[in-house]
Design a protein that fits this description.
Layout lengths: L33 H5 L11 H7 L7 H21 L3 H17 L6 H8 L2 H9 L42 E10 L10 E5 L20 E5 L5 E7 L4 E2 L5 H8 L5 E2 L2 E7 L6 E7 L18 E2 L2 E2 L8 E4 L2 E3 L2 H4 L1
Parallel strand pairs: 1-11, 1-12, 8-9
Antiparallel strand pairs: 1-4, 2-3, 2-7, 5-6, 7-8, 10-11
Helix pairs in contact: 2-3, 5-7
């Protein structure tokens, strides 16, 4: 079984597909003006009106939000190219990286998502999108990034079932708790918990031919009391795949690929905002050094020894608090 917090070499042959090697580029902290770019000592000539002409080409039928976001993106990406004097060769390699991420992405693994994750963009957008009430005493449960390995249509299972198949030696765990309205505290009936995590070897089932399909995945629906319970494994840390654009970019950036031990959840219920989140094992040494910057203090949990249960050596009690759509309008 993999050791929590230990460094592992990234796997390089767990899936099919080739990718174009990305190039390493430095992004400056401050976007320069056109005048700054022209006066950088190399006397490069940039049309000072070029970027604004591109922005002005946005048509009158574009929505205000599309106009605002795309104009800002065009300005920033043009300034980035000017600041770093991006060459045709570097630009082509960047396009190749994006194309390779798209070519590798499947319903079982989203390489584009993983590329966004390692750049910290996914966690930044998650923070921006998070409900502003999370700082309140009775805040809704904090969100975290989806990650690239979620799969649709995980099996629907009855409460107290196990999502573990053919792994007798793992740290088997009973996870249990209640799904409630974070304002009223009342239990939520009909809440669905979609859960997934890796095996002790650090691989999700779609990465590992030795695991059965949909291993370590399941969906559970609460009754009137809002309670849930199921058997899973105490998770382990694992490396981001090294065979795709995201893994190659990490190598170019001289960054480690490791993620701390965690379990993924999507918790949804009628009339409530879906919650995408993760919970992290407190004992993991990588909590402050996550390759995708997703750890939040309020999502760190304690796995406790469990006595008298032949199915589990550990237990984890955790309550999920959801925000209603009416509240988040």
């Amino acid at each position: 079984m993999a050791t929590n917090g230990s460094e592992q070499a990234p796997p390089d042959s767990h899936r099919q597909g080739s990718s174009t090697a990305p190039t390493s580029q430095h992004v400056g902290d401050v976007a320069p003006t056109h005048e700054t770019a022209e006066a950088d000592g190399q006397n490069l000539k940039f049309n000072p009106n070029f970027t604004q002409n591109v922005i002005n080409a946005i048509g009158p039928k574009a929505t205000p939000r599309i106009r605002k976001v795309m104009a800002s993106m065009i300005q920033h990406i043009h300034d980035f190219a000017r600041e770093n004097k991006v060459t045709i060769d570097e630009w082509q390699k960047g396009i190749g990286l994006i194309n390779a991420a798209g070519a590798l992405s499947t319903p079982k693994c989203n390489e584009g998502q993983l590329l966004s994750d390692i750049l910290g963009l996914s966690s930044l957008v998650d923070t921006i999108t998070s409900d502003l009430t999370t700082s309140a005493p009775n805040a809704a449960t904090s969100s975290a990034i989806l990650g690239p390995f979620w799969r649709a249509n995980a099996p629907q299972l009855p409460m107290s079932s196990s999502i573990v198949h053919n792994i007798p030696d793992g740290d088997h765990t009973l996870m249990h708790g209640t799904v409630t309205d974070h304002v009223t505290g009342k239990p939520i009936e009909g809440a669905e918990l979609d859960v997934w995590h890796t095996a002790p070897n650090g691989l999700y089932e779609q990465q590992d031919d030795n695991q059965v399909d949909m291993n370590l995945r399941g969906r559970f629906t609460t009754g009137k009391d809002g309670r849930y319970d199921f058997y899973c494994l105490r998770p382990t840390s694992y490396p981001i795949p090294g065979d795709g654009p995201a893994g190659k970019l990490l190598q170019l950036l001289d960054r480690h690929p490791m993620r701390p031990a965690h379990i993924h959840f999507i918790v949804s219920a009628p009339n409530y905002k879906p919650l995408v989140t993760q919970v992290f094992d407190r004992r993991d040494k990588l909590l402050t050094n996550d390759a995708v910057f997703a750890v939040k203090e309020e999502l760190i949990v304690d796995f406790l020894p469990r006595e008298g249960d032949p199915k589990a050596q550990f237990e984890l009690a955790y309550d999920f608090k959801l925000a209603s759509y009416d509240e988040t309008k």
